[in-house]
Design goal:
There is one protein chain. This protein has about 325 residues and is an all-alpha fold. The chain contains 14 helices and no strands. The chain has helices spanning about 5-25, 35-55, 65-90, 95-105, 110-120, 125-155, 165-170, 175-185, 195-210, 210-220, 230-255, 260-270, 280-285, 290-315. Helix 2 packs parallel to helix 8 (about 175-185) and helix 5 packs antiparallel against helix 6.
Length: about 325
């Protein structure tokens, strides 16, 4: 694999976020737009993305189920470690929620697909594994457990409800409803073609394509460069957890199952992705510290250009 191939997708992402920051600085966008963009993602574009992907998931490759399980368990362990460290550092609830999200969940689809495509050109199996791992191993965890974390820790200190109340809020959310609807539609082999259905799914796909655009807008308007120095210590912990501990937690149990070298590389690559951009969206939507989340996402993305090479070199 060419190490230089890991940089273009990351560089483009950083450039786009920086462009939105510049537009905000120029006054064309405002930080106050952040909650609006986040609401558009969580209520419209992300549910469309989830439903479209799951509705088309007709031939799930269950031979990757153990890899998906490894990733999900790693996310739970990372959430627990981040919670413990955040409590020790006396973070506020809003800060703790954002720190947990940034430390546990990676940008497996937005960056992961692009990097797998560059590192494994013309390998359909590699991209298929990446999609399966991303949608079930990372996506479902982020959309369920991650959303619950954002809802629970986004509540203000004096208004903290029970876990059951957080679950009820989540159960009513468009994200959860789209997971249920998309999975049911796909597994029931409901029609995707035909005059009516083809047009409907074309419209859903068009909305889903706007998801990355609005996620980048949310991060860009929330990101404040002048406060980066103040979070370097916390960012360092998030970097260690997400970029180094995460792939190790997935790699260790994978030694017990027969995987080809390229399969293990795809698995490690997905596990080594920087913090999920959707962490900022969930933080902004449900009351966590979105400004902190945006800084952690930005810094982990910057560092990931080198850490990915390190992980693949040592564990791959």
């Amino acid at each position: 694999m060419s190490s230089l191939n890991t940089f273009p997708a990351i560089a483009v992402l950083i450039a786009l976020i920086s462009l939105v920051v510049a537009l905000r600085t120029a006054g064309l966008l405002k930080a106050d737009h952040g909650p609006l963009f986040a609401s558009i993602v969580t209520h419209i574009t992300l549910p469309a993305t989830i439903f479209y992907a799951l509705a088309h998931a007709r031939d799930l490759q269950w031979d990757y189920a153990l890899v998906v399980l490894f990733l999900f368990v790693a996310e739970v362990v990372l959430l627990a470690l981040a919670w413990w460290l955040g409590r020790a550092l006396k973070l506020s609830r809003a800060q703790l929620g954002s720190f947990m999200l940034a430390s546990a969940f990676g940008s497996s689809a937005l960056l992961g697909y692009a990097l797998v495509g560059q590192l494994f050109p013309n390998n359909i199996e590699a991209l298929s594994e990446a999609v399966f791992i991303s949608e079930l191993g990372v996506g479902v965890g982020l959309f369920t457990v991650g959303t619950l974390v954002a809802i629970h820790f986004g509540q203000q200190e004096g208004q903290v409800g029970s876990v059951a109340s957080s679950l009820w809020v989540f159960a009513k959310s468009p994200i959860f409803l789209s997971i249920l609807a998309g999975f049911a539609y796909g597994q029931l082999q409901a029609p995707l073609e035909g005059f009516f259905f083809k047009e409907v799914f074309s419209a859903i796909h068009l909305i889903a394509q706007a998801n990355t655009f609005f996620v980048i807008l949310t991060i860009g308007v929330m990101l404040q460069f002048h406060g980066l120095g103040a979070v370097i210590g916390l960012a360092t912990i998030a970097i260690l957890l997400k970029l180094l501990v995460s792939p190790f937690l997935v790699w260790l149990p994978s030694l017990a199952i027969p995987l080809q070298d390229w399969q293990q590389d795809v698995m490690l690559l997905e596990a080594a992705m920087p913090s999920a951009l959707l962490s900022v969206v969930l933080a902004a939507r449900y009351g966590c510290d979105a400004h902190l989340a945006s800084k952690l996402v930005y810094l982990t993305t910057l560092v990931s250009a080198g850490s990915i090479l390190l992980v693949l070199g040592i564990l791959g």
